[in-house]
Amino acid sequence: PICKKVTDFGIKSLALTCTKLKELDISMIPQITDVSLLSLSSLRYLEELFAGDCKEITDLGLHYLAQHNTMLMQLDLQWCNQVTGAGIQKLSKLCTNLTTLNLKGLDFDVIFI
Question: How far apart are CA 25 and CA 51, in angstroms?
């Protein structure tokens, strides 16, 4: 089900109160932006994040996650069309525990060095 009323402010409140959250699905919520990913970057125990079809997520949001969510093991970014190869490359270098990354529907070439 799509939660059309969830906003960046709601995600911020969630991150402030559920500090030991390990898994979160924010897929297909059109209002979710990089601001939500900044809020979620405070969740040190976050292992799985499903953010597929969040059209407002960009490389900046990935930067927030990559810098702070070192426990992240699974990330779904399918159809997040503003994410680029540069954002994925940074994420892959900093999130060393990442084992599953869904990039379905993204249109770019990723070169990992």
Answer: 6
